[in-house]
Amino acid sequence: MKKKKFKKLGIALGGGAALGAAHVGVMKAFNELDIKPDFISGTSIGAFVAAHIAFGTSIEKLEELALDLDWLDITAFKLSKMGLLSNEKLGKSILDQIGKVNIEDANIPLCMISTDIVTGKKVVLKEGPLYKAVMASTCLPGIFTPVEWDDMLLVDGVLCENVPITPLREMGARDIIGVDLITNRQYKRPENILNVLINTFDIALDNMIKEQIEDKKTMLIQPELGAYSMADTGEAEKLIEEGYKAAMNALQ
């Protein structure tokens, strides 16, 4: 099977909550086509997947994790002034699966995007505890308690750069493939407060993401995910297949 050739390839995995299972399908296609990233970045659930790829988690294991992932398993009720829940269990998942490592220890150069809720500035995490960086990047504001990092309070990176292309350029990537899970989504009637908040962020981010990825020399993979919920982890198997199909169509 003929494959596209890339030089200094960077892969940017965007956020999308439960839709992140599609990233596993994308990476499965990369693996089958023997396309290996030289750099990888992630925002929100994309940071979780990027961390596993950068530290050598097998596609088979990553698929198993995606199928078993349940938001109720990675959150804990922790009412505070800053949030309703804590995503500490997600951090523990990283510790259990990858270990107590730092971002800079990765086999593939890795960075993750977060937002300082105090200043509103984008924070590119390239060094420091991996588990904590993943927690920061996936920290949905108003739902999860912000993660303290030095003198910053960090929340989800989707607020600043959902498909983290810019950091890859700065890291030295020449060719970049971005995986966008959110743009052009179809919105569904919310069934609970989490759905309401997710729809709110979704709508607000849609046009911003389009602007971020315009005029950039980047290949975009955009799986057809309009029929899927960002809060329903029960559709992981179908999402993996959607990601796989979209990547194969783009890469062959």
How would you summarize what this structure contains?
With about 250 residues, the chain is of the alpha/beta class.
Task: State the helicity in percent bands.
Answer: 25-40%
Distance between the termini: 8 Å
Q: Tell me how many strands there are.
A: 10
Report strand %. 15-25%
Tally of helical segments: 8
Low-confidence stretches: none
Describe the 3D structure.
With 252 residues, the chain is an alpha/beta fold. The chain has helices spanning 21-32, 45-54, 59-68, 88-97, 130-137, 166-171, 193-213, 236-251; strands at 9-13, 39-43, 76-77, 85-86, 110-116, 122-125, 147-149, 152-156, 175-179, 219-221. Strands 1, 2, 5, 6, 7, 8, 9 and 10 form an 8-stranded mixed sheet that branches. The protein has a two-stranded antiparallel sheet with strand order 3-4. Helix 1 (21-32) packs antiparallel against helix 3 (59-68) and helix 4 packs antiparallel against helix 5. The N and C termini lie close together (8 Å). 46% of the residues are buried.
